[in-house]
Each structure stands twice: as structure tokens, then as C-alpha cells.
Specification:
heterodimer, A: 117 residues, mainly beta, four-stranded antiparallel beta sheet, 0% helix, B: 112 residues, six-stranded mixed beta sheet, five-stranded antiparallel beta sheet
Amino acid sequence: EAGVAQSPRYKIIEKRQSVAFWCNPISGHATLYWYQQILGQGPKLLIQFQNNGVVDDSQLPKDRFSAERLKGVDSTLKIQPAKLEDSAVYLCASGPGKGLRSYNEQFFGPGTRLTVL
Amino acid sequence: KQEVTQIPAALSVPEGENLVLNCSFTDSAIYNLQWFRQDPGKGLTSLLLIQSSQREQTSGRLNASLDKSSGRSTLYIAASQPGDSATYLCAVSGAGSYQLTFGKGTKLSVIP
């Protein structure tokens, strides 16, 4: 089966600019997650969707970050305006939700590396 | 708040050695624990998932153990190979939210 797709793979912008990332989860997966991974750190959850509803966005900096998952499939994560400290890899993951496998087993995409100058 | 610690931060071993990576977590009320592998510039690949009711899981040369009461897990890699060089991340999911909390990882280098 096809894995989680993300684009773009790399993005370089100047501070105060806007940027958007796209994620296409594994077909049929109900849950979708966005993580931020700063160099040398483990991934940190930003937002979790179940179908097209938000389950948890408590760690999403809502003054500048926004995310949506239209029709419960693809998702976009936007940063507006970007700050220097937003430089990181943004990972998207999806999971089957309820099913034969673990309820929250997650499958990760290759990530988008963002550099803010 | 759950905190996950991985020791050591980096490890370098000669090819063929057996090795152990350690992971500890502060809140024992977990749903499961996962070990991931991350290659430079790549996403995460799930290696092993241990449910909270299980003690260990095995896949090929990898064996992961879980001691929930003491808040510890180990990842054992047998007969290490240069292709095992990567960063290994441990993550636990909470019993209520199923969200993953990650450690900072152990960077493994296997020297030919």
C-alpha cells in the first residue's frame, strides 16, 4: 500500500512570510497527526484529527499556525507569519484508528524540512 | 505530564556487536510503547510496538522489552550491521489520549 505523502520536501522562506504544507494519508486511515521536529529533538505533536474533526490542538501555536483536514482525507498545515524558531521538520502521520491493529499505530511521511531565514 | 528519556544520546559500536538502547518514561499509565527508526532526512519507520499488557516484542534481530511498572523499555539489536546506523526513537502513548510522546532519540553508528 502507498505510504503517507507529503509536499514539499524542502522549503526555505524569510521570517514573516507564509508557508503551507500538504499531507495525503494512507487510504482509509481515520486519524491524522502533524508533528514538529526541531533538530536534535523528538517529534512534538501539533494537532490530531479524527476524520475531519480536531481531537487535540493544545500544542498548536494558534496565533500563527492553522491546520485543516477537508473531507477527512488530505490535510494542510499553514504558518503565517513564520518566525526563525519555526525552522524544523514537519512530519505528518496517519493511523487506522479502530481496527484489527493497534488503535494508535502511526505511519509517518518523509516530512517537510522548513528553513526560516 | 509524560516525559521520555533515552540513554545514551549517541552510541558507536563495531559491526557484529550486540547492543542495547534504553528508554524511560515518567508516567506508567501508558497504552503502548513504540520504537522508531529515523534515517537522516527521512521520516520515521515503526520498528516494534508493545502493548501495555505485553512484556516484549521481537522482529528479526530486534527485541524490545517493556517494564511498565518501572517505566522502562529496552531495544536490543543483535549482530549489528552498518545498515543499522540511524537514530532510534522511543515513544509512549497515553492511556486516555493515545497521543505519542517521544524521547530525543539515540544516534547509533555501526562501524564496519
